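Researcher: First entry.
Model:
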Amino acid sequence: MARPEKISAPESGVHYRGLRDWLEQVEKLGELEKINGAHWDREMGAITQMLTEGGKGKAPALLFDEVPGYPKGYRTLYGQFSTIRRVALTLGLPLEYERKADIVKAYHHRMTEMKLIKPQFVKTGPIFENVVEGDKVDVLKLPVPLHHQADTHRYIGTADMCITKDPDAEWYNFGAYRCQVYDARTIGCQITEGKHGRIHRDKYFERGQSCKFAIVCGQDPLLYMLSASPLPAG
């Protein structure tokens, strides 16, 4: 049997900055479908399921806008990584890769040579463009979807990034956990036992302390991908 072709990972080729830029590039690839008028109550979930299952690995990313009851521009994105090309784009790998194995080999090679970069803390940025605090907080001002008829509530977080801090160390964890909306100001988060976010939470609770928890939606696609990837503590 012939040995698998050895693939060397190129230098980082991430050529987008943030989700909006990523969407523009996906549209240029012909892999973005814009859908207007779908309802948050199960319609977006049903459309996504039908197109994803029927696409057989080639389904477009779905960008829903003009959701009934919400202003134009309040959008919801489904199916970011349903094709190999979009995964390659997100990781900065060649778009010519056609097999999942190519992605895995190149990514593994890159991770073995990864060098940590110290974060830079800033006081300004696009994330502060819109700030709502205190009694004015209402997460249902966003088109939070009810995905499926078996869901009992709407979910603001599935393709999210939840941030927690280890109380015993100076590192933060990014995890992709399901976040269920109970009402305008109450969200519950399901974190499987053994996950770092759960470990952090339990440490705080065992000490009778509250656990600070940030839920990020609309983040850079690469951050979402890494949030869903199992990595060692720290």
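Researcher: Second entry.
Model:
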Amino acid sequence: MIGSLQEFKTYQSAMKFGETVWKVVREWDWFARKSIGIQLVSAADSVAANLAESLGRYSTKEARQFCFYARGSLFETNSWIDKAYQRNLMNEQQHQELQEQLNNTGRMLNGYINSLGRFTSEPPPKV
């Protein structure tokens, strides 16, 4: 049973991922941070923010919707990571680390979405 965000493992994974993204982007020059960096950090942070909002929703339907928003943000983040790598803003090791964290968070998120089941007006289950 999830009683708080601190117990929500998918949220914790998304938070850790966002912090890793932040550390990578902070090393970039001003132009890279301003152009790609802001987009990348915003997308990565949006994953955890939408998961937090999903946990606070009353119905399973609403909770799932915010999980889908989080999933969309995860895909957007993946796009920005690839773009940053193609533009030589991160090295291969950083790229691989971010991809591994992104994939792990994605697997956890998909598992959580599946645990919510079908759309209903019932409160989401506490897993």
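Model: Note on the second entry: Residues 5-116 form a domain with the de novo design (two linked rop proteins) fold (CATH 1.20.1440.60).
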